[in-house]
Amino acid sequence: MISEKKFWRGGTVFLSALLLAAGMLLIPVNAAAADQGTIAVTLPVVQTFTEEGGTAPGSTFDYTLKADDTSYPMPQGSADGVYDFTLTGSASAGLLFTYDRVGVYSYTIYENTGSSENYTYDKNVYTVQVYIKNAGNTSFSSEVIAKNQSGDKVPTIGFENSYRLTPQITPAAAGRTKTGDTSDYTEYIIVAAAAAVVIVFLLVRFFFKKRHGRTKQHK
């Protein structure tokens, strides 16, 4: 027979093992997810800038990337789920994210439009969803879906800005007849011709009456 002392000793060991197993089941698995490695995802942003009628005094525009949750991975240099960056001229940038676990991460990206004279700013607002999936024991796969503010999928996150300089016409220049422009002269010619016809008509009538009067006197 098993002695009472051995019985309680064995029961204590069994109970300790049971509690240890239960505790392991309750520990979060974040560390296991991190052990699978990381995956880098680059989000390209393209800016197109055009000039018309002159050279723009500046061609740098400001943009903001904002995470729907401040805990989501962001490019280096961001703060509180917000990343600000600039693009100059016709250029592009690759926003780099690093993920270490499976999930769906959503962001918003837009241009901080200005009000400078002669500039046209792009007011598009894009939403981006990054899907991180398991691709094996130690690797991930990614899928990026971008949509415009109408909800349509777009292949590229692009912004179009422009500068258009309209020539200013001074009052003196506006009142001056352009070289080679005959529209004003045509009006004068028509008026002068009409006046000449009236004058000729009056002269003919005058001479006719005068001659007719002399004829009566001779009779």
Structure write-up:
The chain is α+β, with helices and mostly antiparallel strands and 219 residues long. It has a domain at 30-164: Immunoglobulin-like (Sandwich). It is 32% helix and 34% strand. It has helices spanning 4-26, 30-35, 171-175, 183-218, and strands spanning 39-52, 60-67, 82-88, 91-99, 103-111, 119-120, 125-134, 140-147, 157-164. It has a five-stranded antiparallel sheet, with no helix packed on it. Strands 4-1-9-6 form a four-stranded mixed sheet, with no helix packed on it. A hairpin with a 5-residue loop joins strand 7 and strand 8 (140-147). The radius of gyration is 43 Å and the shape is rod-shaped. The termini are far apart.
Q: Given this structure, which CATH class of the domain at 30-164 is correct?
A: Mainly Beta
What is the end-to-end distance?
Answer: 179 Å
Q: Whole-number radius of gyration? A: 43 Å
Q: Determine the number of helices (DSSP H or I, runs of at least 4 residues).
A: 4
Do you know the CATH architecture of the domain at 30-164? Answer: Sandwich
Q: What does the average pLDDT come to?
A: 79
Helices and strands: which structural class?
alpha+beta
The helix-strand sequence is HHEEEEEEEEEHH
The tally of beta strands, per DSSP, is 9
**Rough outline:** rod-shaped
The spatial strand order of the largest sheet comes to 3-2-5-7-8
